[in-house]
Amino acid sequence: MQIELNGKPHAVADGADLAQLIAALKLTGKAVAVAVNRQVVPAQLWAGRVLVATDKVDVVRAIGGG
């Protein structure tokens, strides 16, 4: 199925959850924030948040610097 990831179409498996998406993006363990349909989803809830085709997911990675 297709979702929107950071403004672009992205294919995920039917029934995939946010934790699986983050793993597929190789971001597991990284400092990231995730919002689905403009609502932030805490990391502890990623495994329970199943994605559907109408979802718009934004993944933002924290980068240190100055």
CATH topology category name:
Ubiquitin-like (UB roll)
- Kindly report the average pLDDT value: 95
- The helix count comes to 1
Percent strand equals 25-35%
Number of strands: 5
**Could you say which structural class the secondary elements and strand pairing correspond to?**
mainly beta
So, CATH architecture? Roll
Rg computed from alpha carbons, rounded to a whole number of angstroms: 11 Å
Estimate nothing, just give the exact number of structural domains: 1
- CATH class descriptor: Alpha Beta
Largest sheet: 5 strands, mixed
SSE pattern:
EEHEEE
Termini, distance in Å?
Answer: 39 Å
Oligomer: single chain
Helix content: 10-25%
* Strand order, largest beta sheet: 2-1-5-3-4
Low-confidence stretches: none
CATH-assigned homologous superfamily: Beta-grasp domain
Global shape = globular
How are the secondary structure elements laid out?
Layout: E1 2-5, E2 8-11, H1 18-24, E3 32-36, E4 39-40, E5 56-61
Parallel strand pairs: 1-5
Antiparallel strand pairs: 1-2, 3-4, 3-5
Characterise this structure.
The mean pLDDT is 95. By secondary structure, this protein is mainly beta. A hairpin with a 2-residue loop joins strand 1 (2-5) and strand 2. The protein has a single domain (2-61), classed as Beta-grasp domain (Ubiquitin-like (UB roll), Roll). The chain has a five-stranded mixed beta sheet with strand order 2-1-5-3-4, with no helix packed on it. It is globular, with a radius of gyration of 11 Å. The protein is 11% helix and 32% strand.
